[in-house]
């Protein structure tokens, strides 16, 4: 099944609104085994939209639209698509009553909202449980068009409750998928490691890179769910055999969503001392429910004087090695672990940029340390493409992965291990 996504709205072309709908739908269709061949963004111009729909209808089996279902004069997606699909719109009294009820407590329904109650005569309406504009479905000459609102939460709810099931019926059989979340290798390196596993037709596997990590979506189709799940699990097992502990989760996205329940389950506690990350690590941890059972406190220690006074970093360490160094990171980790009486202490110090680097320590240089007991593991990072946000995100990623590995008794690649007197061992 060939699919196209068409996002309607001049505000999208102007860059006033980020098109998160297209990203969401692309991922959802991939999970259903439906290939997206094109994505288009077009303004609120009925003539140009009609030409785009005519062309798309001739080359694709499925068109998914978002936007242009509102009550204003420039919201013409429904009318335009109906014309191209040789359908007509008729007033749905039930939908009109819903819209009137929605506006009862808001001073009455504006007259132009009545157009939102117009639905296809030959096609179908799709209920909107979050807003006033129902979605609609048209069919003509072997092509199906599904129109959904542009408001992201309305579109997502409609897709999950009413559209996904329709698409599964259209695709035939059963489709199941899972997402393996991986931290360590970048997308190109990972592709070299598992390239042969990405070549199958059923089940299929695809890489997705975002937020300083990579995910593999494994999707399988079968006559029923049991058959599809068996095919998916066979390929998933091959990825697990190949990648081992580089896979940190199946379906739970975000290392924090693994580390928090892991430490809660082990009744272990964590404290953080951050410099260049500015509290991002603590923020990620505390965004997870139940974090209070494993997180004691976090300190943002930008100034060297605070590193000395609060964390006990030695003046001699700062003088000899500098604030951005493996020894300083180690003493930060030990210091916060001691102050919190925690099982793990994390220390992060580095140069997030855009300025401030040197030849020996350019922007993107970060030291991440995790202490437990009387030992501390330290990594030096050299974050490429060193935008400030990327340096901070990558640093917090490594910190969480190091904690995960220590809690599970796994090796930490590329880390040096020190004792309590890190400066002497260094």
Cα-to-Cα separation, first versus last residue: 60 Å
| Stretches with pLDDT under 50, minimum 5 residues | none
The percentage of residues in β strands lies in 25-35%
Query: How large, in whole angstroms, is the Cα Rg?
Result: 27 Å
Indicate the CATH class of the largest domain.
Alpha Beta
Based on helices, strands and strand pairing, what is the structural class?
alpha/beta
Roughly what percent helix?
25-40%
Counting H and I runs of at least 4 residues, what is the number of helices?
15
How many beta-strand segments? 18
By CATH, the architecture of the largest domain is named: 3-Layer(aba) Sandwich
Order of strands across the main sheet: 2-1-3-8-7-6
CATH fold field value of the largest domain: Molybdenum Cofactor Biosythetic Enzyme, Chain A
CATH superfamily of the largest domain: MoaB/Mog-like domain
Profile the largest sheet. 6 strands, mixed
What is the general shape? elongated
What is the domain tally?
3
Q: Report the mean per-residue pLDDT as an integer.
A: 93
Family: Belongs to the CinA family.
Domain MoaB/Mog: 4-170
Protein name: Putative competence-damage inducible protein
